[in-house]
Amino acid sequence: MHWTNTLSAALLVVAAVAHPTTEKEHKPKLEVHISVADGILKSATDGHVQLLFAPAGTNPLDDTDVTSSPNYFFGKNVFGLSTKHPVILSGGSNDTTDYGVFGWRNVSIDDVEPGDYSIQAFLNIYEKAVRADGSVVSVRFPCGDGAPGIGGYGTPITSLANITVTGKRQIEHLVFNNVTESEVFTGHEIGGCEQGNYEDTEFLKYVKIRSTVLSNWWNRDVYVGANVLLPHGYDAGDKSKRYPVVYAQGHWPAGKGAFNYPTYLDGAFAEAWDTGTIAATNITEARATPKLILVTFRHENAFYDDSYAVNTANIGPWGDAINEELIPHLDSIYNTIAKPYARIQQGGSTGGWESIASVIYRPDLFGVCFSSYPDSLSFNRHQDIPLYTNKNAYLTANGTPIVSIRDFDGNTQVDLASVAQENHWELTFGTSSRSIGGQWDVWNAVFGVQGLNNYPLEPWDKVTGEIYHEAVEFWKPFDLANWVTSNWDSKLKLGEVLKKRINVYVGLHDDYFLNEGVAEFQKAVEAKGGPGWANFTYLAGQPHGGIYNLLPIWDYLDMLQTWVEDHAPDGKTPLPPSVTTPIAIGNKFVDVMATGGHGAALARQAPPTLTGKKASVGRWDPGVKLEAQWIVDGRPKGKPFWVEQGCDVSYEGGKCRELQIEVTGSKRGYKTETRKSNVVKT
Ligand SMILES: *[C@@H]1O[C@H](CO)[C@@H](O)[C@H](O)[C@H]1NC(C)=O
Ligand SMILES: *[C@@H]1O[C@H](CO)[C@@H](O)[C@H](O)[C@H]1NC(C)=O
Ligand SMILES: *[C@@H]1O[C@H](CO)[C@@H](O)[C@H](O)[C@H]1NC(C)=O
Ligand SMILES: *[C@@H]1O[C@H](CO)[C@@H](O)[C@H](O)[C@H]1NC(C)=O
Ligand SMILES: *[C@@H]1O[C@H](CO)[C@@H](O)[C@H](O)[C@H]1NC(C)=O
Ligand SMILES: *[C@@H]1O[C@H](CO)[C@@H](O)[C@H](O)[C@H]1NC(C)=O
Hints:
Elements: H1 9-15, E1 30-36, E2 45-55, E3 72-81, E4 87-90, E5 101-104, E6 115-130, E7 136-139, E8 156-158, E9 161-165, E10 170-179, E11 204-210, H2 212-218, E12 223-229, E13 245-249, H3 267-275, E14 277-278, E15 287-288, E16 293-298, E17 311-312, E18 316-317, H4 318-333, E19 343-348, H5 350-361, E20 368-372, E21 403-409, E22 412-418, H6 419-429, H7 439-447, H8 469-473, H9 480-486, H10 494-497, E23 502-507, H11 514-529, E24 535-539, H12 553-567, H13 589-596, H14 598-603, E25 609-611, E26 614-616, E27 625-632, E28 635-643, E29 648-650, E30 658-666, E31 673-676, E32 680-681
Parallel strand pairs: 1-10, 13-16, 13-19, 19-20, 20-23, 23-24
Antiparallel strand pairs: 1-4, 2-3, 2-6, 3-5, 6-7, 6-9, 8-10, 11-12, 12-16, 14-15, 17-18, 21-22, 25-26, 26-29, 27-28, 27-30, 30-31, 30-32
Helix pairs in contact: 9-11
Bound molecules: 2-acetamido-2-deoxy-beta-D-glucopyranose (NAG) (6 copies).
């Protein structure tokens, strides 16, 4: 199966982008027409249609995993969809993902093998948001569903249809005739369905507040929630008895409790927690459960099932919402010890990154982190991609695919998905990093600045994998190794501030190669602080997952409690005020926006300029392809020609009175734009 190198005539009209190659006229074999039943949409709707072809007799949603799904996935953006304007999916090209169809794996609809299929379509509805910096985006706002990429609450869907693909010209008709229902919204909770609504139990409490900073930035009400697990013996009325807090970072926890491994709802843990007694085993005597409050956050958003708990130019000031609004609110309603020595950050994977980032950026708030198999701590290795030095995110220097997910058969690595496969799969769920829940896309949103198109400035071409190093450069404040070492001796004094407050665990067989970023981080900080500055544990043969250092859960929690006792003012090694100073705060939203917001995107643009007969092509966002045209004496002269960003061009067309150059920039996800130089009298 392969790409067709043709575009349908309709696509050419809307795309209206000059192409270096000429496309043949092509009649698609299979077209899928999807109309909208009355009452399904409130008004003309923008969004993204996902069309799934599954093996006959199966439900396309049974397996949508990138490593195993037998489905074909096709995605297409829709604009102004209504009962009057159906959407047609046909063909598919890697060049027209804004208006056309993009298919996985790397296929056009014409490439669907003849045979029987169950097909179904889903519509992610986008809402337009005008953010505080003037940037405008169309995104799906999740509502208590944890932001799945497909089929979340309120999604118009078609009925499952059985079709036979003939391999010849064929038109199939589907109808958006139903909408998936919310399970968590009964109509009167604070913030409606946002961040879900769950029933409190005796020990497990669900909190939700409206975030002022996020609501101001998004220009709409945005809520943030927490699941709070109180310890046995907790007495709300006894303010003298206060507890340390473990902030367990990680993915959308829904109503599942306040601790990821295992969740509170898993029987044995909950039974011990609720009774206050860990039952005796052959090796240990019965003992009391730890006197800790366990908290996890609910921060689903337009890009992912959580926000990465930091301030970002694309998702907004979630770090501030959690740290400056939600945590103080929790401190005001529960008997916490609101001091750094009694605040622990922990988590694995996404939560691993969040927990270490929280201590690194907010050493004034949190005492320590126990971070497990964190997302890349250094972009020297973004998973397995040498992001700063490689030319392509999908291919190694010798041209083999870069692997994203691996397994091990003994010591033999088994590759489950490549970076290219995953990125193409995400592209079918949404363009401009809007796959919602796509891992590579949310990294683009968290680590990246805004592009001129208001969406994340992607670090590479999502189709070809070509890395844009200028875009990657903007990621540096989120490269934790770089942030810590470059602020080692700055006024933040992170070398001194963070010493012995960072603990990281990772397995050497990590499914996503995250051990590599940990090793890079270790190398960078130990080059400055020597061994022992932070604590790293690598376990041979271990994959992704499990509790920190694979400790039994109760031993792990005891260790956390001991850390707090040791670092309390009357403990063995009290945490001194000099290391919890606000001077050391990083990731300030004002700084993030200064380099990453819409103003910064506008400021880095420049028109072409002409000096004599020599022209600079201007400044454009990374990845914008440029076509130039000389204007001689007010009229285009010669053919338009492609120019590279950063290159100068000279006019060699002979005599003229007035010279000007026009440069047209185009990029997927961007409006094609023509910029004119000054006019030079020659
Ligand atoms: C996509 O398919 C085309 C045609 O088969 C092939 O040349 C190209 O290498 C594929 N791209 C990727 C990234 O798999
Ligand atoms: C994109 O499609 C063209 C044909 O239209 C093909 O030559 C090229 O290999 C494709 N690129 C990728 C990365 O799939
Ligand atoms: C589709 O086919 C399956 C068997 O492959 C059958 O069980 C199901 O009822 C069919 N659905 C429709 C809508 O015809
Ligand atoms: C619509 O979906 C709901 C579940 O969300 C289901 O109960 C109902 O039967 C569906 N209606 C139709 C016409 O398929
Ligand atoms: C603990 O006791 C159970 C039941 O008596 C037994 O099955 C298990 O093997 C024992 N475990 C150890 C480590 O001794
Ligand atoms: C690192 O942490 C582990 C427990 O998490 C501990 O056993 C070990 O002693 C620590 N190493 C150092 C050098 O502090």
